[in-house]
Design brief:
The complex is a heterodimer of chains A (267) and B (469). Chain A is an alpha/beta fold. Chain A has one domain: 3-Layer(aba) Sandwich (Rossmann fold), CATH 3.40.50. Chain A has 9 helices and 6 strands. Chain A has helices at residues 34-52, 57-66, 81-86, 88-91, 96-108, 125-146, 163-171, 222-239, 244-247, and strands at 71-75, 113-120, 153-157, 173-181, 192-198, 209-215. In chain A, α6 links the parallel β2 (113-120) and β3. In chain A, α6 (125-146) packs across α8. The longest helix of chain A is centred in the middle third of the chain and has 22 residues, at 125-146. The radius of gyration of chain A is 22 Å and the shape is globular. Chain B is an alpha/beta fold. Chain B is 46% helix and 13% strand. Chain B has helices at residues 18-25, 30-34, 42-53, 59-62, 72-79, 83-86, 94-102, 108-114, 120-127, 132-140, 171-183, 200-216, 229-237, 253-258, 263-276, 294-297, 306-317, 340-356, 375-388, 411-421, 427-436, 454-468, and strands spanning 4-8, 11-15, 146-147, 151-152, 159-162, 190-193, 223-225, 245-248, 286-290, 324-328, 361-364, 392-395, 400-401, 406-407, 439-442, 445-448. In chain B, 59% of the residues are buried. Chains A and B meet through α1 of A and α2, α11, α12, β13 and β14 of B.
């Protein structure tokens, strides 16, 4: 039997090793070959499914309990996924029931704490399911070594980044970290973002936050993300601020341009 | 301030001012609902459209939608308005203007000379009572031609920005995407990189590389690293070879401030670019990007609907004689443009408004994975914009931007539009493609060379050697 045709393979396929981009796909006529077309559809389907996958907060809560960590399970003011996508403002605030729950917790713990860790689905529950627990396990010993007191881990469904501000303010926390699913890319449906804020309160803009992006198997590793985050937190405690003013000093140097030698296109 | 009203049957709908009328007359989109300014239902929307159709165009000169005193974009629009150019349509209502645009009186010549007489608000108003086919038919009559090292926007031409982004700005990875794109005939509008990092040193290194590639292969095109205008000025001060000065812009002073720019800073960037005198055929050198929803996302919309805010961004753009203006239509997310239908209409509105105002309009035909859109929607918008005569689109490997995490048109998509609509690249670039043995285009067919173009064989051989050594 003949092998099914997949169009003209690209004569410059060797370029594919040089970039994660979809280069040298070949062509059928002038169009995408069948394989490339279906590979794209599969990647898009994965990214879409990641956006709409429900957050299994109860499951994560159980796993945290097994590791000796208490948690609070909350919901944003966005009632469902549709509402969440259309109303970013609602994803940044807590539902009334969740506010009550936090108030009740706070009345038993009026002294507040130094750190509140929040985990929210954001735009990819898949990212949270895969990377939140391993990253927390990596972080915990380092946080304990600093001696920072913590609230229970707060799990939020239909949450956006700024929901951590309200949570931390209500808990009386000096610092907030939120682990949140990033907008899925076609080649990265499970990318986790970490945002850090010093002196968090409702109404802060992104200018007051520091972001560590792209935590996933093919991206930033758990130890590297933890290292950067702890560096930021120590600096923030020393200087009593976070956000733009901290940004430049925490850049981890990228691989230098010369690492691969001369550029083949100019050689 | 005048109020406006219109009755449908027994119900009379009232609109407090022109701004409210414009918002309620806007075809439904999620961003206007998010801003809580959209019509409450379909009947109210049509009533607003009917009331808007009876408003005289000159009213927009008397009732600024964002106050003159607090917004420099309004001041720019009002202060540079050309009354003589406006004269041919100054007696018309918005509805009458639509009829005139569709008539044979409105041809390429009359529309181009009208442009300085139109304000962005007039252009936005008429779109609200136009169907998709109206937006295409009128835009198709208008050619806005710009030049730096080639001629963009000519009839029968469709250009592409080659967008070789890489997650860590690795120059070799970027070069691989550039070569891929060139071999598919892309890159005549610009070879333009969105940098992953904003460090001036790495941006300068990318600019040096792009310049070297363009010179080495004698490509009649221009380069750009899409960084903040102040970083481009800094690169120019350091003596780095920079072709196009890029900036994201929006339609209000406050939204531009959120991007860290003002008209004065844009003017500085424009002057810095001009001082290099690097264009061989012309000196259009600004590259602007825009998109509906940007003013609202910065909470800088002044209660104005997102499409009118967007048209005002073109009022900013045209002041700086840009080479390229690109509406990045589906990038911002579903809270502003929810689905394929809203993205498609917005792309056509933006292209129409830009062309009507005399701006060299291109479109990043795109979507994110949390919008209700897919490749079929992008094919539809690409085809419609191709018919409408869009100046340029994006070209990216396999539609997947691995740095910005969204999907835009691919190198292959550009070939599809060229083949089905008989569109060619910019003439200078077309000749280069033929000379290099990449492809020729005759009788609607694209004829690729039988072998790898000789000029690039060496590059690939070098790569092979590097791999095996």
């Amino acid at each position: 039997m003949n092998k099914p045709t997949t169009g003209n393979p690209s004569p410059w396929q060797r370029l594919r090793n040089l970039s994660p981009a979809r280069i040298a796909l070949g062509r059928s006529g002038i169009s995408l070959p069948t394989n490339a077309q279906l590979n794209f559809q599969a990647a898009h389907a994965q990214a879409r499914d990641a956006v709409h996958l429900p957050f299994e907060a109860a499951g994560l809560s159980d796993q945290l309990a097994k590791h000796g960590r208490a948690s609070l399970v909350l919901h944003s003011a966005a009632s469902d996924r549709h509402n969440f996508l259309l109303r970013p403002d609602l994803g940044r605030r807590l539902s009334d029931a969740s506010v009550d729950l936090l108030c009740k917790y706070r009345s038993g713990n009026p002294g507040g704490c130094e750190l509140a860790i929040v985990v929210a689905d954001g735009l990819s529950a898949l990212a949270v399911h895969r990377h939140a627990l391993p990253l927390l396990k990596c972080l915990e010993p380092q946080i304990q070594a600093e001696g920072w007191s913590q609230s229970p881990v707060v799990l939020v469904s239909q949450g956006r980044v700024a929901v951590a501000d309200e949570i931390a303010e209500r808990l009386g926390a000096r610092m907030a970290i939120i682990l949140i699913g990033e907008r899925p890319g076609l080649s990265s449906p499970d990318s986790l973002g970490v945002y850090f804020t010093y002196a968090p309160r409702v109404g802060l803009t992104d200018a007051y936050r520091n972001c560590i992006s792209n935590v996933r198997s093919e991206g930033l590793s758990y130890p590297m993300a933890s290292h950067r985050l702890l560096f930021l937190m120590r600096e923030a405690c020393r200087r009593k601020l976070s956000g733009i003013a901290l940004k430049d000093e925490t850049e981890v140097p990228q691989m230098t341009n010369t690492a691969r030698g001369e550029n083949f296109l100019l050689g | 301030m005048a109020s406006y009203s219109h009755s449908i049957g027994a119900v009379t709908y009232r609109f407090a001012d022109l701004k409210e009328l414009m918002a309620k007359a806007s075809p439904a989109r999620s961003g206007d609902f998010l801003a809580e300014i959209a019509a409450g239902n379909d009947s109210e929307r049509v009533a607003a459209q009917m009331a808007l159709a009876d408003v005289e165009l000159s009213r927009f000169l008397e009732e600024p939608l964002v106050p003159y005193e607090i917004d420099e974009v309004t001041r720019l629009i009002i202060d540079t308005h050309d009354k003589a150019a406006f004269a041919p349509v100054s007696h018309l209502t918005v509805g009458g203007f639509r009829d005139w645009l569709l008539s044979d009186s409105a041809d390429g010549r009359s529309l181009r000379s009208l442009a300085p007489g139109l304000t962005p608000e007039m252009a936005a108003a008429v779109t609200k009572i136009m169907r998709v086919q109206d937006l295409i038919l009128v835009a198709q009559k208008i050619r806005v031609v710009t030049r730096f090292r080639n001629s963009l926007g000519l009839p029968g031409r469709l250009s592409t920005r080659l967008q070789p982004n890489h997650p860590t700005d690795d120059p070799v990875g970027i070069a691989a995407s550039i070569l891929d794109g060139l071999l598919y005939g892309n890159g005549d509008a610009v070879i333009g990189i969105n940098p992953a990092t904003d460090s001036t040193a790495s941006i300068c290194a990318l600019l040096e590389m792009l310049d070297a590639v363009i010179q080495r292969y004698e490509i009649p095109t221009q380069s750009c690293v899409l960084t903040h205008v102040t970083t481009s000025i800094e690169a120019i001060n350091r003596g780095v070879p920079l072709d196009l000065v890029f900036q994201s812009i929006a339609g209000t002073e406050a939204a531009n401030a959120s991007f860290g720019v003002s008209l004065e800073i844009l003017q500085e960037g424009y002057q810095a670019g001009l001082s290099l005198n690097r264009g061989s055929l012309g000196q259009n050198l600004m590259y602007f990007e825009t998109g509906q929803g940007s003013a609202l996302s910065a909470n800088a919309h002044h209660g104005l609907d997102q499409q009118t805010c967007e048209a005002r961004a073109y009022g900013v753009a045209r002041h700086f004689n840009p080479l390229l203006v690109n509406t990045v239509v589906g990038f911002i997310g579903p809270e502003y443009l929810y689905n394929g239908k809203q993205i498609i209409r917005a792309g056509l509105e933006d292209h129409f408004c830009g062309k009507l105002l005399g701006v060299p309009m291109g479109c990043d035909i795109c979507y994110t994975n949390h919008a209700e859109a897919d490749q079929d929607d992008m094919d539809t918008l690409l085809t419609l914009l191709g018919v409408a005569g869009v100046n340029f689109i994006m070209g990216i490997p396999g539609s997947d931007d691995v740095m910005l995490n969204y999907q835009t048109t691919s190198f292959h998509d550009a070939l599809y539009a060229r083949k089905t609509l008989g569109l060619k690249p910019a003439p200078e670039f077309e000749q280069w493609l033929a000379k290099m043995g990449i492809f020729t285009q005759t009788d609607g067919q694209i004829h690729f060379g039988d072998t790898l173009p000789p000029a690039f064989r060496q590059a690939l051989t070098q790569l092979e050697r590097a791999n095996t050594s």
